[in-house]
Amino acid sequence: MTAVEVSVVLPAYNEEDTIESTVSTTVGTLASFLPEDAFEVIVAEDGCSDRTPEIAARLADEDSRVRHVHSDERLGRGGALEYAFERADGDTLVYFDTDLATDMGHLQELVDAVRVDGYDVATGSRWMPENRADRPAKRGVPSFGYNTLVRTLLRSDIRDHQCGFKAFDRGALETLLPLVQDEHWFWDTELLVKAQRNGYQVKEFPVDWTPKGDSKVDIVRDVFGMGSQILRTFWELSVSPRITREVSLGAGTLLVVVALLLMTQYLDPDRVLAEMAGAAPEIVALSAVVYAVSWPLRGIRYRDILVSMGYRERWRFLTGAVFISQTGNLVFPARAGDAVRAYVIKARRSIPYPSGFASLAVERVFDLLTITLLAGVVMIGLAVTGSAEQLLTALTGDTVGGDAASSGRTAVAVAGGVGLVAIGAVVAIVASARSDRNLVRAVIERLSGDSYADYVAGIIEGFVGDVQTVAADGSAFTRVGIGSLLIWTFDVITALIVFAAFGYSLTPSLVAVGFFAVSVGNLAKVLPLTPGGVGLYEGAFTVIVASLTPVGVAAAIGVAIVDHAVKNIVTIIGGVVSMAWLNVSLTTAVEESQSTDAIEPETND
Fold first, then answer.
1. Which superfamily does CATH assign the domain made up of 6-241 to?
2. Domain extents for the chain?
3. Looking at the annotation, which residues are catalytic?
4. Beta strands per DSSP E along 307-388
5. 105, 207 Cβ separation under 8 angstroms
6. Could you tell me which of 138, 179, 218, 228 has the C-alpha nearest to residue 454?
């Protein structure tokens, strides 16, 4: 009996109408140039929901050269190919799309490129200069743009990365597969790019190709999927290797300096120094110490959130991760520092990105709910005492004039909107945690008709599920809620100590207004209109304090500036120390990303 030399894998997902004719054509074509027992045809049936498994099993029973490899769950296009290749017997491994869009007259050339000519990888191409493929504009334009982007960013010499007509030397493929992270449509591209980067010989040759079925740009597959994978591979191959410890620390320090410079665009440095000069420095220093105490509480709260999601980490490590992410939020608009934290816990503790972002979402919701609660309680008190009318007059009149009033009006309006959104988010999360309905997949399928939607829906469902897990855990909900209340109480106490540094007595009225001013100021800076929320916080704080207490406008601005500066400086110092400790640069926010494989968490108790 002749040993199997060539294994052809046919990736099949719900192909009941075509799989039998495809297998017949494939067997006949291989038999035309190979000995009868020198090849096998493997139907890689990827968790189909139609009759494809039954048909594939029957074909395997009828012909010993045909094999059926079944997967109970969806592995994705790349995952199904890898699964089948691991079970193949041939030294030359081949696959092509089951619609047979590529002319099968090219099959011998594809096989012989590896089997006879000694190439490590061979691939058909619809974009060679002498290409004869029929490329309608609705297929050709997106394909040309995609391949141009890959060639430019990933420095590939291949013209057509996605042609489903490829062959591999077994040894080369076995070496390359551990390097390939994608399991779906980007699998072909990533494998070709990494084959070139690792010095393997790749042959690209023109093929006759006829489009089968309709095609359109798919939002989920083409934009979310392929685009993000190009960026992820670019980061992995071109950026990450250059990030040494020295570069990481240097870049992080530079970005912290940028954060300080950005602050001067929104605040007058001379005024900051003048206001600080009028305050008792030892009491200002005390406020910084008190604020620093709240940071371990942030690490403990974040630990409690992750524990409820099944990940156990030390609070000291998590405190450092929070420091780094909040420093990033001072530097970048749009709260891009949050991406840094997701990266840190993924890179250092193998917590998947969806879980990382879900834990951040839970933390943000609790933050917003807590400061909304604090602001709401004081607002009720103001209404009862009649002081609310004074605040309304300050916002609409000229009691507090100039930029402070304008910024204050904007800030209070923003704070009100954010507070309502926070309450709505909590209601929605708790309600969804108690519901069996799954709206994620329905929404994704409305956006995409491609099978890649299943993969994306699975990632988003994991994210939503993690958020709901915390919401459904009464004990975790209570612990995180109490932690949030303590954290934001320390935030207010810091501001009250700054009032004391300016010589003001902490009367019950000033304490109440201080709670309200700090809460509204923090709600206002949630929208990333400026780095670190500089400007909005001061405006809200000033207009509230100046309208509801005997503190004058200039003094209120001074207290706001010093309070916010103390908090930002403590954050930056903690961020620099944490970056040095964990060897993380803020530039990693550009991300190594979109790796969403679930990895067992490390236990660091």
1. Spore Coat Polysaccharide Biosynthesis Protein SpsA; Chain A (3.90.550.10)
2. 6-241, 245-595
3. 188
4. none
5. no
6. 218
